[in-house]
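Sanity check

After download, print the first record. It should look like this:
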Amino acid sequence: MGGGNGQKAKMAREKNLEKQKAASKGSQLESNKKAMSIQCKVCMQTFMCTTSEVKCREHAEAKHPKSDVYACFPNLKK
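Expected structure tokens:
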């Protein structure tokens, strides 16, 4: 025999709670877009805020060999 209405309602609440938890995990695309705070001033390409100075230098040398590294990324310290 099945349960009463109280048991069915409780099961429905638990099921909906699990759905909400699964939906909130989602993707990190929005937070990744917000973290793109370093920008090359020559080509306007954005980089993650955790990008190292070495990666910035590599970008400048590969993409803009005629420009100075500090022209691309003025926030780097000389």
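If your output differs, re-run the checksum step. Summary of this record's structure: The longest strand covers residues 38-39.
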